[in-house]
Amino acid sequence: MDPLALVLIVAGIAAAFCWITSLVTNETSWIDRLWSIVPVVYVWIFAAAALIAGVDATRLVVMALLVTAWGARLTFNFARRGGYTGMEDYRWAILRGRMTRWQFQLFNIFFIVLFQSALLVLISLPAYIAWQHPVPFTGWDAAFAALFAAFLVGETVADQQQWAFHQAKRASGGTLEPGFVTTGLFAYSRHPNFFFEQAQWWAFYALGATALVADGGSWLNWTIAGAALLTILFIGSTVFTESISASKYPAYREYQRTTSMLIPLPRRRGRAPETA
Length: 276
What we know:
By secondary structure, the protein is an all-alpha fold. The chain has 11 helices and no strands. This is DUF1295 domain-containing protein.
């Protein structure tokens, strides 16, 4: 069986599970609970297919190990925030309040379940390109793998800084000025964890493209759709999240004015919101 067919079967089962459980439990964060798991499964399916076929699977095994590290880190961070305890993403609750029941159910099945399930397949498909072109591992592969690992470390640091802030905020009784983290990596980007998350999948795309180039193809191929759509999704989600933050915290507008939204950059002229 073509490994892509197996990936699509698994993706279909996962999507059906998310939709049915969202109806049964009346909460829609099931896709969030699978977000860090199914791409790991998909990439290992391609790696296993190469290993079984007896072709050079070095690149695919490296890709699978990198995505496994990504998934383990993200699963841990999601779990410690209570993501597996039945807590729904607060943004879905806000959107539910802005829609009628039938409108939200359409949004649930077409965007939350189907679009995001398809996206999780798409970001994994550079491994399909690598499976189709089992050429030897190159220096470019090593460079992009190291870049992926560096972005993974960056996201780990950013999430830890955000976690430490919210723990301190909880310990202080729920109030800690200015209400959101502005130190560490957050002094250079309002969402450094989002930036590093997207960057990892661009590096992953580059690993697949390297296989194609080594086999006489182009750096640009159709699997770029995964990283591109992920970036679009993150930008839209970030804008929505920031509209909520700006309505809650008076200092957030100044933070937006002085600090880059995603790409870590030096702070623009102005002072950072004061912390307690």
